[in-house]
Amino acid sequence: MIEVRKAVDNDCRYYVDVHCPEVKALPRDERLRVCGWWADYDACVFYLNLYRRLGGEVFTALINGEVVGEIELLPHDDCLLGPRAYINVLWVKEGERGKGIGTKLVNQGVKWARFRGYKYLDTIPEKESVGFYSKLGFKHIAFQIKAIKKLKPLHYSIDYRFNELNVNEPPLNMKLVIGTYRPGLFTWYSAWEDKYLPPQTSPLAYELVVEGKPIVTLLDYYRENEASLIIWSIETLNDELLRKAILVSEQLAIKAGIAKIFIQTWNIYEDLLRRLGYKIVDNDIIRLSKNIEKDQY
Which phi and psi (to 5°) does residue 51 adopt? Predict the structure, then answer.
């Protein structure tokens, strides 16, 4: 019988068996590099607490007391499509798939999201998982893209007003425009507070004013001298405003010694990114959504 309950700290000792058991014999730093926070007890506990601090939750699936899967859920109130709940991670242990574990975890996610007043539960699945979610009533609502750019010094100065921000100045009541692979506040706090995953470099954050509109930009390091660009704004940005925000962000990145930027955003901005010299490395990332108002469990 499958049991699903809220995760406890001790579950973190077993999540590596769910996600990547092949790394268990590796040194700690290598486990973290290859598998992420699921491979280390302290890192996993940190993220479990971060989820809950931000209003999210993690649930564990067990069979006969053995940890066989988990689901990580977050509020995504800064989504450009409107507030919704979000499945950040869903994983079932290899060898235990096909037994209904994933379905039971998703059903728990629906209950959790509905209890908190959300009308929609979204996710960006691995491509091989799209069929699984479709059977559970999730529908394709948008495409996203991934893009990278190697930065070169540009011959203009930063002529926009900007203020550097710290961890205690998150972009509240703003919409996530770039960096859309997970909820923005989770990205914000994990970028500042995670002391486990490499490269363990503090991010750079700025509040810009572009044509009178406030914009927050975060440069979140994922390798030495390489960073993801995340951008929030009060409202949806047209191409010209987003172009200026990206160019200013690039200049700030260059001044900080960042050599490459990664972007994930909605496919409506693909042409703009191409014009700005970004290489599109994936343009069919599927975002799925389930209307959870009518479901009964």
Answer: -50, -50
